[in-house]
Design goal:
mainly alpha
Length: 220
Amino acid sequence: MSISRGVASPCRRRRPEHPAKREIAIPDETVAHTSKDDALGPAWWTEDSERWDLLQFEAAHDAAGLPLDPWWKDRRDVLDALILSPGPVDHDFARFLLEQETRFHRHCWGFSHTIETAALLLAEHRRPDDIWHLWQAITTSFDTWCGLPHQLLLAGGGTTLTVAYVAGSGHEQEDNLLGHLQELAQVTDDDVTTLIAERRRYYTDTLRELDDAQEHDDDR
């Protein structure tokens, strides 16, 4: 398994490709990149939600025919930094990041590891009502359907509690989601906890390896 720096089709393999070596840099208030040592920590973003505009997907950019959401790399760096930090992160911020990644993937072909890390950060909160945001992310495209772990839908308490919540929700997507949940293998809350921990550990280990490799190259 490997992570993708860009947006690549995942359906020939379950996970995206390995990224090029990079520093994890987070934008400051002028959207200027900093070095890894000077990067703003995750707490900076949660101090003021107005700063989140720096990471917002701009559909107009895509409509103009430009190849990449201009803030996608900044969002990627923020998500990488957050997955390397002890969780869970601020719930509203996690939901915002997944919404932006969902919007980005709706306008782009392929799959990036960023939408999975955003989904993991939200799923860590284990809130039943987050299932609608996770469902929207999964159903965004063929690629997100193939690339995202569907068991994250059960983060609100495993199969039994999740099905009961959705069945009583009255949500417009209730029937569609219930039909899909019934097709998934039954899992317990502990099973979902294990999945989230394993996927988070995978990304943490991979990003640290990339940092170590970058530092080794810089010392040459």
